[in-house]
Amino acid sequence: GQQLNQSPQSMFIQEGEDVSMNCTSSSIFNTWLWYKQDPGEGPVLLIALYKAGELTSNGRLTAQFGITRKDSFLNISASIPSDVGIYFCAGLNTGGFKTIFGAGTRLFVKA
Amino acid sequence: SAVISQKPSRDICQRGTSLTIQCQVDSQVTMMFWYRQQPGQSLTLIATANQGSEATYESGFVIDKFPISRPNLTFSTLTVSNMSPEDSSIYLCSAGGGRGDKNIQYFGAGTRLSVL
Question: 3-state class of A91 per DSSP?
Fold first, then answer.
């Protein structure tokens, strides 16, 4: 079945540093999504990407939909302690409801 | 986007008992899903809750263990039956296919289950 390879698995960074994480797949997706899960909460949608090559920002977050439609990355600039959590990428094909999730990137930010 | 309310938020249960988790969406949605998540791990899809018909279960999950109801377009329940300590996990409800949301899934806050 379809799988997403998300990396890195975890990151330990200093406050103020920039962060980059990515997701790759052997399959094409029409939509790429990035979620964040805070401790004790459910995943919350951060950014949705609908078109190959699309670059979208949400505050300090920037995500891109790869040209091949098989990958996506998420960047966080000037990290702060509240960025701590698990970041999940997800791929979805329109016309279907099944969303494929990556294994997550666990981000730890040291003040 | 849809707002998902899930309850209970947490519970501690005895081995052999059953727990029913409720999921309420603030708008009509086409699809509702149930996931299991071990702390710090990724999401594992248990089943798709189909309105008015039997749920569609993923490999490794069966209806006798995880019966699901979906009586209408805004509500679903998941029951964890005959629990054992191995069922201790976070259970998440999600919903998608609402008006204008392009099939994106939105999640509840989860139910943290501990089985003694």
Answer: strand
